[in-house]
């Protein structure tokens, strides 16, 4: 009965149910941990000035770059079987150490700012590694059918995670939440090990002539940075991500400005409502529609769908800069990204080799993403505080960026289809 229900609602085959369920649980637990930690981080920011937060964003970019470089070394030297579990164990231990420092250090300013940056690094890195593992676990056809369903696990975790600090922060304090999150990050370790076994037993997706127990990816630890710069396919994906972050930052600052007239309690209620609506929509769209959208529209137009919607939304916002329009745009942007754009762009990495997947993907997901955040934040500040542009002008500029983003999306889709056709030709031959 369950198999028939899943077959109707999704495109999961019977032999893929275990792997898909465990992958769902994997990202579900990750997102619960992250959404426990994120309110702790964001509560700290209220104690600092805008310039202090901007400096932390800039510092975060450089630290993220350093962490990705260290990860490249780990990819080259650690056995592949232990690589992904080691990442989550490392973050779990780091949060235990933060908890100890929070309890023992009297002057917490430096500890709090370090924690703020580290959560930002973790927020990008843990999902990048997860999707690298997924791209390696499932083959290309499975990725097209299953990634959207697996991504709903992130939305489910994002629905439950915020309830923990909301219900228990006042009772146990915020520091103890850090310890709870560190314990949760240990749960994916046995899941990862079991999924690796299922890859061989049920998914039948193994690299030829490789003993996975002894295999190391090896190679140059910094090959990911070189591959990103020299590979047109990866560079196109990076530009796609950069334009996405620019749009996200533009909408974020527009939101901040339009909410400035409300008190903090009202702002919190509005933003909390947005989070809940976004995650409900994401779950429904990703579980029931995304794989079918990719199948019907193709990769290029699937990736271009959200840029088109956001371009129209920003133009409407430019000439009607009211809160209701902004909230509708924000919900559409975030739900569409999590349910459609995110799974779609993760499918792109099924067309690259294992070394590129684990070394270059974090460069794009973390370094390019955080660099785009930092760059766009200063650009937006220059446009508003420097030149003095209003919401209308900024909205038009944002719509132009969204249109360019859509064009890049279609180009990336063409590159993906070309690589897919080349692989099919080689396999046929």
> What is the CATH C-level name?
Mainly Alpha
Rg over CA atoms: 21 Å
Order of helices and strands: HHHHHHHHHHHHHHHH
Distance between the termini: 40 Å
- Overall body shape: globular
Poorly predicted sequence stretches spanning 5 or more consecutive residues? 208-216
**Tally of separate helices:** 16
Fill in the keyword field for this structure.
429 residues; mainly alpha; Growth Hormone, Chain: A; 16 helices; 84% helix; globular
Written description of the protein model:
The chain has 429 residues and is mostly helical. The protein has a single domain, classed as Up-down Bundle (Growth Hormone, Chain: A), CATH 1.20.1250. Helices cover 84% and strands 0% of the residues. The protein is built from 16 helices and no strands. Helix 10 crosses helix 11. The relative contact order is 0.14. About 2% of the residues have low confidence.
Would you summarize the structure shown here?
The protein is an all-alpha fold.
How does the SSE layout of this entry go?
Layout: H1 2-9, H2 17-45, H3 50-77, H4 80-104, H5 109-137, H6 140-160, H7 163-172, H8 174-184, H9 188-201, H10 223-230, H11 232-258, H12 264-288, H13 290-319, H14 323-347, H15 354-386, H16 391-428
Helix pairs in contact: 2-5, 2-6, 2-8, 2-9, 3-5, 3-15, 4-5, 4-8, 4-9, 5-15, 6-12, 6-13, 6-14, 7-8, 10-11, 10-15, 11-14, 11-15, 11-16, 12-14, 13-14, 13-16
């Amino acid at each position: 009965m369950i198999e028939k229900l899943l077959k109707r609602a999704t495109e999961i085959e019977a032999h893929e149910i275990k792997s898909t369920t465990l992958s769902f649980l994997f990202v579900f637990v990750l997102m619960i941990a992250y959404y426990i930690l994120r309110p702790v981080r964001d509560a700290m920011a209220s104690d600092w000035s805008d310039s202090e937060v901007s400096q932390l964003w800039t510092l975060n970019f450089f630290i993220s770059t350093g962490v990705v470089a260290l990860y490249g070394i780990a990819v080259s030297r650690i056995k592949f079987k232990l690589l992904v579990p080691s990442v989550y164990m490392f973050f779990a231990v780091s949060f235990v150490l933060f908890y100890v420092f929070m309890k023992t250090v009297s002057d917490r300013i430096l500890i709090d700012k370090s924690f703020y940056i580290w959560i930002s690094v973790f927020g990008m890195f843990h999902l990048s590694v997860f999707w690298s593992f997924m791209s390696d676990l499932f083959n290309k056809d499975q990725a097209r059918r299953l990634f959207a369903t697996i991504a709903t696990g992130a939305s489910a975790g994002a629905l439950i995670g915020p309830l923990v600090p909301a219900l228990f922060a006042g009772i146990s304090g915020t520091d103890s939440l850090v310890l709870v999150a560190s314990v949760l990050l240990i749960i994916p370790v046995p899941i990862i090990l079991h999924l690796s076994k299922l890859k061989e037993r049920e998914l039948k997706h193994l690299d030829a002539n490789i003993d996975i127990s002894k295999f190391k990816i090896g190679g140059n630890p910094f090959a990911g940075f070189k591959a990103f710069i020299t590979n047109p396919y990866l560079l196109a994906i990076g530009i796609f991500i950069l334009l996405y972050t620019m749009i996200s930052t533009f909408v974020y600052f527009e939101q901040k400005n339009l909410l400035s007239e409300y008190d903090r309690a009202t702002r919190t209620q509005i933003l909390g409502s947005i989070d809940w609506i976004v995650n409900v929509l994401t779950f429904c769209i990703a579980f029931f529609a995304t794989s079918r959208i990719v199948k019907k529209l193709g990769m290029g137009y699937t990736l271009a769908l959200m840029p088109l919607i956001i371009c129209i939304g920003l133009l409407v916002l430019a000439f009607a800069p009211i809160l209701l329009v902004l909230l509708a745009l924000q919900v559409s942007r975030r739900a569409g990204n999590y349910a459609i754009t995110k799974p779609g762009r993760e499918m792109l990495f099924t067309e690259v080799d294992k070394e590129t997947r684990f070394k270059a993907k974090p460069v794009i997901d973390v370094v390019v993403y955080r660099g785009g955040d930092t760059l766009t934040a200063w650009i937006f500040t220059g446009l508003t505080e420097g030149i003095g542009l209003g919401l209308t002008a900024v909205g038009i500029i944002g719509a132009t960026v969204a249109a360019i983003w859509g064009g890049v999306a279609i180009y990336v889709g063409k590159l993906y289809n070309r690589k897919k056709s080349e692989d099919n030709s080689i396999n046929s031959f």
